[in-house]
Write a structure and sequence with these properties.
The complex is a heteropentamer. By secondary structure, chain B is an all-alpha fold. Chain B has helices at residues 9-29, 33-55, 67-98. Chain B has a single domain, classed as Helix Hairpins (Orthogonal Bundle), CATH 1.10.287.3510. In chain D, strand 4 and strand 5 (93-101) form a beta hairpin. The chains are: A alpha+beta, B mainly alpha, C mainly alpha, D alpha/beta, E mainly alpha.
Chain lengths: 412, 111, 245, 176, 446
C-alpha cells in the first residue's frame, strides 16, 4: 500500500478526531451466525479492518474419522453444516462409493435428488430469514421458518430426524421413502409456489433492503475464485460454475436427464437466465434487478439463492415423477465394516452454501487412514477481511450475512 | 410561605441579576473551556430575563416596553445559538490541535 | 384557613417562586459541580425553569422559543461538544481555591449592587392585581409575528407619526439576523473540521485506508475472464490425445 | 506415460522436479519436489490450456504406524504427504499435486517440516495452510501470518499427527 | 372545574378547588399515557403476530391475551434495577425520568376535544414541538451515563438523528399553522369541523404531501420503525438502553409509546380533523349541536362555569364523541407505525441522515411554498369546492381597539358560514381610515 505523506494532496480531511479502537463483535453477538468472533478496528463509524477468529466450535471431526468406519462417521457429517445435513451426508456417501466403485440403483439416484434438493430449499429459506434478521426486519425470518417446518415434517416422515438426519449413507439411504410421501411432497411444492412471490416482496424488492445491500461488499469474479469462494457466493459474482452441471462424472450423472438451469448472471449483460419454467399457472417472472445493484454485491448473492430455490422446486417435481416410475431396490447401505481399498479419493458436491469436498485415504482396513472435509463456508468467510475494509459498522452484518456462513462447517 | 406581595418587575430583575452573577462567576472560575461557555449561556439568560420583565403587560400593564421587550429577547436567543456554534467550533478545534480543553494551558497564540 | 386561602389566590406568585428557585438553584449547581456533564445537565434544567418564568410573565411565544431553540438546540450542541471532549482527565477539573475566593468577592458585591437597584426603583415594585382573567387576555403570538414582519399591530393608536402607521416593525433586524445566522453557522462548520491527518493513527486510520482502498480499486483493472464452458469436468491427466473432446 | 499433454509440458519445464505420475489411482496425482512446488503451481495457474485458478483444498496425510507390527508389513517408511487438490473454473479440469516431506525436519523431533507456501499463488491457500499448520504441524515458508486458526493460540502439539498425545489438562481444565 | 368543586364543598373560590381541578386534569392525562402504553404494548404484540402469520399472546388473561402487558409490567418491576459501576450514578438514574417527563409534558397543550384541553396555550403547536425536542436529552444522558462505549455510540447516533429530524418536522407543522392563521391547536381542530373534505389534508395537494412527510419525520423523530438506529440489535446490541433493566427500562418504553401517541395525535389534529369525525355527527344531530364550536362560554375545565355548568347534556356528549374520535385517530396513527416497523428492515445511519437532509427537508420546503402559493392565489380548496359550512374565525386588528386600552378584541361570532363569501371584509369598511386591513384568521377568545 503506498505510504501516505502528511501533505499529500489526496489526503481527505477528517472531521473531529476520533481514536481508533478494537471492538469485539461476537462470539455471542446476535448478528454473527453462531460463534464467529470478528475483531474490528474501527473509529466508531468506519471500520478499517476485520479479523475473523475461528475455532469456537472446533471438535476435530477429522481425528474422530480416523477411528470410525465409513458408515459410523455419517452422524459427524450431519453436524458440519447442520442447516443442510442431507447434502453433507450425500457428499460423504458419494466419496465412499467412488472409492468402492459402488453403483447405485436407478431408484436410489432419484431418491437422492429429491432429498438433496429439498435440503437445499430448507437451507436457503434459513439463509433468507437470518439475512432479514441481520438487517433488522424480523418478519421474513418467521415466513422462512414456517415453510422450512413443512420440509422438516417431510424429512421426519422419511428418516425420523428433523435436523441431523444421517439418512443418505454410502450405498444409498437407510430406508426407502414411506408410501404417500411423494404426494404430500407434491402438495408442499404446490403451496410453496404461492409463497415465493411473497418472499420476494418481503425482502428482494424492498427498497430499504436494496439500499442496505446493493453495491455493498462488491466482490469481482477474479477475487471470488482467488479466495476459493464457491456456490451462491461465487455465482453471485457472475462465475458460471455449478457442480451439479460441471462437477465430477459420478456426481453429475445423478442429475442426468433433469432440466434445470444454473443461476448465474452473464458478466457482460448482467442478466439472469430467463425463467422459462411454467410456475403455478403463470411463469414466475424473476423480480428485476434494481439500478444500484452491481454484479458481485450482497444483493446479487441473496438474489442467486432466492432463484436457486425455484430451480430446486423444479428439480424435485421432475425427480418425484422419475422416482415413482422406478421400483425395487432403493440402494441398501453398505456393510457396516466394509473394507476400504488402499486408495484415496476426493469428491466435491454442490452443497447449498458451496462446494463441500470430502477426501478419504484408505489403508485396507474398514477404518479409513485419513479423512478430510473441505468446507465451503471456510473459504467464503476468508473473503470478509478484504471486503470489509473501510466500510461502515452497520454494513458488516450485511456482508457476513450475505456470505451465509455456518460455523459448524467452518470449525468442523 | 412568606408573603412577598404580588410578583412585580423587581422580582424578575432580582432573578435576572442572580443568573447574571452566577454566569459571570462561572466564567471566571471554570477551567474547562466548555464550562466557560456554560457561564456565557447563563449570562445571556440573565439579560433575557430583564427584557421579558420590562416587556410583559402582566407585570406592568402601563408604560411597559410592549412587544419590543419580547422581540429583543427573541433576537438574543437566536444570536446566542449562533454564538454557541462558533464557540464550540473554536473549542473542538482547540481540542483537536492541542489535545486538551484546559483553559490555563491555552497560552500559545499559534495554531 | 382564610389566611392560606388568601395566600393561594396568587398562584402566579407561588409558581414564580418555584421556577425562580429552580433557576437559581441549578445555576448554583452549574457553578459548583466539577463533572462537566453534570454541569451541562444542570444548565438544561436551569434554562428550562427560566422558560417557565417567561411563560409566567405572559411571554408565551418567547418561552416556547427558549425551550425549543435554546434548550433543544444550543444546549444539545453544547452536550455534543461535551461528549466529544469529555474524555478521561477532562471530566473533573476542579478550580484552584484562590480563584474561588476572588470570584465570590467580586460576584457578591456585583449582586448586592444589582439587587439594590432592582428593589430601589419605586416604580418597578408596584404590586399589580394578578387575577386569572388578566393572564388569559395577553395573546401576543400573532402581533409578535406581525411585528417581526414590520407591521406593529399593537401600537396602532399611538400618537407618534411613524408609530401611527405601525411601520416601526422589526423587518430589518429580522433579515439581518437570518443572514447573520447563515454566515456564522457556515463559518463554524468550516472551522470545526480538522485540517491535518488525525495524529493518533497517522496513515493507518480507517479513513486513510478507505481512501487508499478506493484508489487501488480504480487503478487495478480487473481483467474479466469469461467462464463459459461446455463439457463436464474430469481429471486433466486421463485425457490422452487432443485438448478438447 | 509422457504422452499426456500436461505431464509432457511439466516434464519439459521442470525436468526431474516432477517425481512420478500415478494414473492407476482413482484420482490421478502428480508428485512434485518441494523446491519446485511454487513454480509448478504458478505455471499451472497461468498455463493456457489448463488454468488451475482455484485451489480446492490443502491436506496433510501423516503416514506413520505407531505399533511396530503394522509398520513392518507396510512398504513405505514414515513420512508426511501434503496433497493439493486443484481445479479450474475456465476449463473445468481437476488435478491433484502431492509433495512428500519427512515427518520432522532432518529427523529432529519437534522441528516442523517445511514446505514453501503457495499463499501468493492462490489467496485461499492462506487459511488452508494455516489450518494444515495448526492441525498437522507443517511449517509453510513465506506464509503471510502463520498462526493457529482452529485451536487456541497457546495449544501445544498438532492433533492430526498419528503420534499425538492429548495433553492432560489445558489451563486447569482436565482433558482426560 | 375549580368552581364545580367549590360548588360541591360550599367554599367560594378556594385554593382547594384549584388544586383538585389541576389534579383531575393531570390524572386524566396520566391515564392517557399509562393506559395508552399498556394498550400499545399489547397491540404491538398482536399486530406483529398478525403480520408474521402467528397469533400473538393468547393465553395470558383470556382468549386475546389482553393481560399480557400486565404480565410484562410485573416481570419488569420484579427485575432488579442494575446500575453498572462505571456509570455516573445520578445521571443514570435520572435519564428515564427526563424522557418520560418530556413526552408527558407535551400532553398539557394537546386538545382532546373542542374545550377538553389541559391548559389553553396560545402557541400550543410550538410548545408541543419544543417539549418533544427535550426528549433527546434523556437519550444522551442514558448513553453517556451507562459508561460502555456501545451505548455511547447508540446515544450519539440517535441524538444526531432526532435533532436533525426536528427541522423537517417543524417545517411540516408550519403549513397547517399558516393555513389556520393560529398556533392554537383547538382552533386548528375547529377549523376542520364539518365534512371530511374540510380536513386540511385534502386542502390542496401540497398539504397532502406535507402530511405524508410529517408522518415520516415523526416516525424518525420518535425513533421507530426503519429509523430505530438506537436499538439496532444487529450492530450495537440494543443501543443506549443496554445497561438498563427492570422498571427503568420500562420507563424508556413508556416514554417512547407516549411520544408515539402524541405525534400521531398531533398529526390527526393538524391534518386529519382532530376530534371532528369524517361525518359531523355533532352538527347534524340537533340535540348535540347546542354547543357552538370555539364559543368561550362552552369551554371545559379551566373556564369559570366549568364543564358541567348547566348540565348541558348535548354539550357533554358531543365533547365525548370528540375525545373518542381523536383517540381513535391517534390509535390509527400508532398502528400504522407498528405496521411499518414489522415489515421493513432498518436503515443505516448515513442513509437516515441523507434521507433527512436530501429528501425530507427539501420536500417539506416545497410543501410549504406550495401551500403558501395556494393560499395566496386563493385557489379552490377541497372545502371550498364540496365543503360543508365550517367554523370560521376572523381576526381583525383595528386602530380603535387600543383606544379604551382594555384590549378587548371583538369576538368574531362563531357563526358557521361557508368560507370565502365574506372576503369583502364587510366590517373593515366601516372602521376609520387608520385601520390596518389585516385579515388574519384568529381563534375565538382562547
Amino acid at each position: 500500500m503506498a505510504t501516505l505523506k502528511i501533505d499529500d494532496p489526496r489526503v481527505i480531511e477528517f472531521d473531529v478526531r476520533t481514536d481508533e479502537m478494537l471492538i469485539n463483535m461476537g462470539p455471542q453477538h446476535p448478528s454473527t451466525h453462531g460463534v464467529l468472533r470478528l475483531v474490528l478496528r474501527s473509529d466508531g463509524e468506519v471500520v478499517s479492518d476485520v479479523e475473523p477468529h475461528l475455532g469456537y466450535l472446533h471438535r476435530c471431526a477429522e481425528k474422530i474419522g480416523e477411528n470410525l468406519t465409513a458408515r459410523q462417521w455419517i452422524p459427524y457429517t450431519d453436524r458440519m453444516d447442520y442447516l443442510a445435513a442431507m447434502n453433507m451426508n450425500l457428499g460423504w456417501s458419494l466419496v465412499i462409493e467412488k472409492m468402492l466403485e459402488y453403483d447405485l440403483p436407478e431408484r436410489g439416484r432419484h431418491l437422492r435428488v429429491i432429498i438433496s434438493e429439498m435440503g437445499r430449499i430448507a437451507s436457503h429459506l434459513v439463509a433468507m430469514g437470518t439475512y432479514g434478521l441481520d438487517l433488522g426486519s424480523f418478519t421474513p425470518f418467521l415466513y422462512g421458518f414456517r415453510e422450512r417446518e413443512k420440509i422438516l415434517n417431510l424429512f421426519e416422515e422419511a428418516c425420523g430426524a428433523r435436523l441431523t438426519y444421517s439418512y443418505l449413507t454410502p450405498g444409498g439411504a437407510t430406508a426407502d421413502l414411506p408410501s404417500g410421501w411423494t404426494d404430500s411432497c407434491r402438495q408442499f411444492l404446490a403451496e410453496f409456489k404461492e409463497v415465493i412471490p411473497e418472499l420476494h416482496t418481503l425482502l428482494t424488492t424492498n427498497s430499504i433492503f436494496v439500499s442496505r445491500t446493493a453495491g455493498i461488499g462488491v466482490m469481482s469474479a477474479k477475487m471470488a475464485i482467488d479466495y476459493g469462494c464457491t456456490g451462491p457466493v461465487l455465482r453471485g459474482s457472475g462465475v458460471y460454475h455449478d457442480l451439479r452441471f460441471h462437477g465430477e462424472e459420478r456426481y453429475t450423472e445423478m442429475y442426468d436427464g433433469y432440466i434445470f438451469d444454473v443461476i448465474c448472471a452473464d458478466p457482460e449483460t448482467g442478466k439472469y437466465p430467463e425463467s422459462n419454467y411454467e410456475f403455478h399457472g403463470d411463469s414466475l417472472d424473476y423480480p428485476e434487478i434494481p439500478r444500484q445493484a452491481i454484479l458481485g454485491d450482497c444483493w446479487h448473492r441473496f438474489y442467486v439463492r432466492m432463484l436457486e430455490v425455484v430451480q430446486s422446486v423444479r428439480l424435485v417435481e421432475q425427480a418425484i415423477e422419475k422416482y415413482e416410475a422406478t421400483s425395487g431396490d432403493w440402494g441398501k447401505p453398505i456393510r457396516l465394516i466394509q473394507k476400504l481399498p488402499v486408495k484415496e479419493a476426493y469428491m466435491e458436491t454442490e452443497a447449498p452454501r458451496g462446494q463441500m469436498g470430502f477426501y478419504v485415504v484408505g489403508d485396507g482396513d474398514s477404518i479409513p487412514w485419513r479423512v478430510r472435509a473441505r468446507s465451503s463456508s471456510f473459504c467464503n468467510l476468508s473473503v470478509t477481511a478484504p471486503l470489509c475494509q473501510g466500510i461502515l459498522l452497520a454494513d458488516i452484518p450485511a456482508i457476513v450475512g450475505s456470505l451465509d456462513v455456518v460455523m459448524g462447517e467452518i470449525d468442523r | 410561605m412568606i408573603l412577598i406581595g404580588t410578583v412585580s418587575v423587581s422580582w424578575y430583575l432580582a432573578v435576572g441579576a442572580s443568573l447574571f452573577v452566577l454566569g459571570a462567576v462561572c466564567m471566571a472560575t471554570k477551567r474547562n473551556l466548555l464550562g466557560v461557555l456554560m457561564g456565557v449561556e447563563l449570562v445571556l439568560n440573565g439579560a433575557n430575563m430583564n427584557f421579558i420583565a420590562f416587556g410583559s403587560k402582566v407585570l406592568r400593564p402601563e408604560g411597559s416596553l410592549g412587544l419590543d421587550g419580547q422581540l429583543i429577547a427573541l433576537f438574543v436567543i437566536v444570536l446566542a445559538a449562533a454564538e454557541a456554534a462558533v464557540a464550540l467550533a473554536i473549542a473542538l478545534n482547540f481540542y483537536n490541535n492541542h489535545n486538551t480543553v484546559d483553559v490555563d494551558r491555552a497560552n500559545e497564540l499559534n495554531g | 384557613m382564610n389566611l392560606l386561602a388568601v395566600a393561594w389566590e396568587y398562584w402566579h406568585q407561588s409558581f414564580f417562586i418555584l421556577f425562580a428557585a429552580c433557576a437559581i438553584g441549578f445555576g448554583f449547581g452549574v457553578l459548583l459541580s466539577k463533572n462537566v456533564v453534570r454541569m451541562a445537565f444542570y444548565l438544561v434544567l436551569s434554562l428550562g425553569s427560566t422558560a417557565g418564568l417567561f411563560f409566567l410573565a405572559g411571554a408565551e411565544f418567547v418561552g416556547a422559543m427558549q425551550l425549543m431553540i435554546y434548550v433543544g438546540g444550543t444546549l444539545v450542541l453544547l452536550i455534543f461538544g461535551v461528549m466529544l471532549t469529555a474524555q478521561k482527565d477532562f471530566i473533573n477539573m476542579d478550580t484552584h481555591t484562590q480563584d474561588w475566593i476572588l470570584a465570590t468577592i467580586v460576584g457578591g458585591s456585583l449582586l448586592m449592587v444589582l439587587l439594590f437597584a432592582a428593589f430601589g426603583a419605586e416604580d418597578w415594585s408596584k404590586p399589580q392585581d394578578l387575577t386569572d382573567a388578566k393572564i388569559e387576555s395577553t395573546k401576543e403570538a400573532t402581533p409578535l409575528g406581525l411585528a417581526l414582519t414590520g407591521i406593529r399591530v399593537d401600537t396602532l393608536g399611538d400618537s407618534g407619526d411613524a408609530v401611527k402607521q405601525g411601520k416601526s416593525g422589526y423587518l430589518m433586524p429580522f433579515i439581518i439576523v437570518s443572514v447573520h445566522l447563515l454566515v456564522v453557522l457556515i463559518g463554524a462548520a468550516y472551522m470545526a473540521r480538522t485540517k491535518k491527518l488525525s495524529r493518533a493513527t497517522d496513515d493507518k486510520s480507517s479513513r486513510a485506508k478507505l481512501m487508499l482502498f478506493k484508489m487501488e480499486q480504480e487503478t487495478e483493472q480487473l481483467e474479466e475472464e469469461t467462464y463459459v464452458v461446455t463439457h463436464r469436468g474430469q481429471s486433466a491427466l486421463n485425457r490422452t490425445d487432443s485438448q478438447d473432446e | 506415460m509422457s504422452d499426456i499433454p500436461l505431464v509432457a509440458e511439466l516434464r519439459t519445464k521442470f525436468g526431474e522436479g516432477i517425481i512420478d505420475v500415478n494414473l492407476e489411482a482413482i484420482d490421478e496425482w502428480v508428485e512434485v519436489t518441494p523446491q519446485v512446488l511454487v513454480e509448478v503451481c504458478q505455471f499451472l495457474k497461468q498455463a493456457e490450456g489448463f488454468r488451475f485458478d482455484m485451489c480446492n483444498s490443502i491436506t496433510v496425510v501423516d503416514y506413520l504406524h505407531t505399533d511396530p507390527k503394522k509398520a513392518a508389513k507396510v512398504d513405505w517408511d514414515p513420512h508426511l504427504e501434503v496433497v493439493y487438490h486443484l481445479s479450474s473454473i475456465a476449463t473445468k479440469l481437476t488435478l491433484v499435486l502431492k509433495v512428500k516431506i519427512p515427518r520432522w525436519k532432518n529427523g529432529v523431533e519437534g522441528d516442523l517440516p517445511t514446505v514453501p507456501s503457495v499463499a501468493q499463488v492462490w489467496a485461499t491457500a492462506d487459511w488452508h495452510e494455516r489450518e494444515a499448520y495448526d492441525l498437522s504441524g507443517v511449517n509453510f515458508l513465506g506464509h503471510p501470518n502463520l498462526k493457529r486458526i482452529l485451536c487456541p493460540d497457546d495449544w501445544e502439539g498438532h492433533p492430526l499427527r498419528k503420534d499425538y498425545e492429548m495433553p492432560m489438562e489445558y489451563h486447569g481444565i482436565r482433558n482426560r | 372545574m375549580a368552581d364545580f368543586v367549590d360548588h360541591i364543598l360550599g367554599l367560594n373560590d378556594s385554593w382547594f378547588g384549584h388544586i383538585v381541578a389541576a389534579l383531575v386534569a393531570a390524572v386524566l392525562i396520566l391515564h392517557v399515557v399509562a393506559v395508552g402504553a399498556l394498550l400499545f404494548i399489547w397491540m404491538e404484540r398482536k399486530i406483529s403476530g398478525r403480520i408474521q402469520d402467528r397469533l400473538g399472546p393468547t393465553r395470558v388473561g383470556g382468549k386475546y391475551g389482553w393481560l399480557q402487558t400486565l404480565a410484562d409490567g410485573l416481570k419488569l418491576i420484579a427485575k432488579e434495577d442494575v446500575t453498572p459501576d462505571l456509570a455516573d450514578k445520578f445521571l443514570f438514574k435520572i435519564a428515564p425520568y427526563v424522557g418520560l417527563a418530556a413526552s408527558y409534558a407535551a400532553f398539557i397543550a394537546l386538545p382532546f376535544a373542542d374545550g377538553v384541553v389541559g391548559q389553553h396555550v396560545n402557541t400550543a403547536v410550538f410548545f408541543v414541538l419544543a417539549v418533544l425536542g427535550l426528549e433527546v436529552f434523556s437519550v444522551i444522558l442514558a448513553g453517556y451515563a451507562s459508561g460502555s462505549k456501545w451505548s455511547l455510540f447508540g446515544a450519539m447516533r440517535e441524538a444526531a438523528q432526532v435533532v436533525s429530524y426536528e427541522v423537517p418536522l417543524g417545517m411540516c407543522v408550519v403549513v397547517p399553522v399558516m393555513i389556520c392563521g393560529t398556533m392554537n391547536l383547538t382552533t386548528i381542530a375547529n377549523m376542520q369541523s364539518g365534512f371530511f373534505t374540510n380536513w386540511l389534508v385534502f386542502n390542496d395537494p401540497f398539504t397532502f404531501m406535507t402530511a405524508i412527510i410529517y408522518f415520516t419525520c415523526a416516525t424518525a423523530g420518535v425513533n421507530r420503525a426503519p429509523f430505530d438506529l438506537a436499538e439496532a440489535e444487529s450492530e450495537l446490541v440494543a443501543g443506549f438502553h443496554t445497561e438498563y433493566s427492570g422498571l427503568r427500562w420500562s420507563l424508556f418504553f413508556m416514554a417512547e409509546y407516549s411520544s408515539m401517541f402524541i405525534v400521531s395525535a398531533l398529526a390527526s389534529i393538524l391534518f386529519f380533523g382532530g376530534p371532528h369525525g369524517p361525518i359531523p355527527i355533532t352538527e347534524i344531530v340537533p340535540f348535540l349541536s347546542s354547543g357552538g364550536l370555539g364559543d368561550p362560554a362552552k369551554q371545559a375545565f379551566t373556564e369559570s362555569e366549568g364543564l358541567l355548568a348547566g348540565w348541558d347534556l348535548g354539550l357533554i356528549i358531543s365533547r365525548i364523541i370528540g375525545v373518542t374520535n381523536l383517540l381513535l385517530k391517534g390509535l390509527v396513527g400508532v398502528t400504522i407505525m407498528m405496521w411499518i416497523r414489522w415489515s421493513f428492515p432498518r436503515l443505516r445511519i448515513d442513509q437516515v441522515m441523507t434521507m433527512c437532509l436530501k429528501y425530507c427537508v427539501p420536500l417539506a420546503a416545497i410543501g410549504f411554498l406550495g401551500a403558501t402559493a395556494w393560499q395566496a392565489l386563493d385557489l379552490p380548496t377541497a372545502s371550498s369546492v364540496i365543503g360543508t359550512p365550517r367554523y370560521k374565525h376572523h381576526e381583525l386588528w383595528t386602530a380603535d381597539h387600543n383606544k379604551d386600552g382594555s384590549k378587548e378584541e371583538t369576538i368574531s361570532t362563531p357563526v358557521l358560514e361557508t368560507p370565502h363569501e365574506d372576503d369583502t371584509h364587510a366590517e373593515a369598511k366601516t372602521v376609520t381610515e387608520n385601520t390596518v386591513p389585516v385579515s388574519v384568521l384568529r381563534g375565538g377568545n382562547q
